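Q: Here's a chain of 446 amino acids. Please give me its 3D structure as tokens.
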Amino acid sequence: MKSVLIKNAKIVNEGQIIKGDVLIEGDRIAEISSTISMKSADTKIIDADECYLLPGMIDDQVHFREPGLTHKATIETESKAAVAGGITSFIEMPNTNPQATTIELLEEKFEIAAKTSWANYSFMFGGTNDNLDEILKVDPKKVAGLKLFLGSSTGNMLVDDPKTLENIFSKTKLLISAHCEDEATIKTNLAAHQAQYGDDIPMECHPIIRSEEACYISSSSAIKLAEKTGARLHVFHVSTEKETHLFSNKKPLAEKKITAEVCIHHLWFSDEDYKTKGSKIKWNPAVKTKNDRDGLLKALLDDRIDVIATDHAPHTLEEKTNNYSNAPSGGPLVQHALVALLEMHHKGKISLEKIVEKTAHNPAILFQIKDRGFIREGYKADLVLVDLNSPRTVKKENILYKCGWSPFEGITFKSRVTHTLINGTVVYENSKFPNKGKAERLTFNR
């Protein structure tokens, strides 16, 4: 059995930071102690030299574009970028081509990941107006959950029939994750802007078109339906301060029936950045005001918002450089999510303990992921070492996304990921990928 011994680490886990060693045997954490002696001559020693050891990020919302959209990204390319960024597990969305709206199509995606993924993986099953029978076949122990687009979707994945929605909320045992934007409000706003500007709408109008009102109408409606039916609802990428008041911190996460996520871009950018970043920060929901950004961070810190994710959604630079009407929404983030959060830590906005809670512990609790998300003896060894004092500038030559660009280009982050371990195997070490390792399908304690 292969073993790895991490020495002299500052271990960030479960609300505290302790200095110590971690022994990994096979794919699991065997021992955590202040000092551990080498067990055998072939043990790989990693001297952390007082770098910080974190449980790997679990990103609960990514779009890796495979199958069907592989000119933008693949499971292999994006999961490799993810492990370089300290993400050890991901949950991918169903709006690929074809869409994962049948059991057969969902399993085809699992088969691709089993062959090519660098990180542990699961996939959301996609809901439509007419696939309730398929939804009810999904095994909650083997699939992360159900994704419902209540606004802004592709193909036939916009679920906008009220009776269908209530049926799904009432009958599924799956955790429901929802994209909440009111389509009617957005269409009205868009028509008004098209009448004024044609297709050349200024990018700064994006948060006015995909407005606070559109988000709040949809989020509040989904929450009311969940309360009525008893469904387990997780609201993706909350983007407004107003929406944060829909969520509560009065119960521990494990007891909550309604939870929320915030994404890196909504914590980092504001509408002032459209002037310089343009379509590179065009996301759905839109990046909004400084007040929204500050309100999201406040709700994250006081536990109304439960997890941080990326909503990694790459497009080619050629696609993104179109005018407003033709530039798709979304951007690549998995490689730079953790270092962006560490930069926020350097600025005094968030503690290391809270970063770990929101990116590793809480996703594991919220999705009931088995044996991951914590640095605990007996748990899978999904670990990340970070050096908080090793600056690196994001440049084209060090970007790993297939699309080849990042909204963070030109930014120098003070921290960097030095090592990433997936199931006990060092897959990333000082900007190199020494081993592919064996990524695993996530399983769930449900």
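Q: Can you summarize the key feature?
A: The first helix runs from residue 75 to 84.
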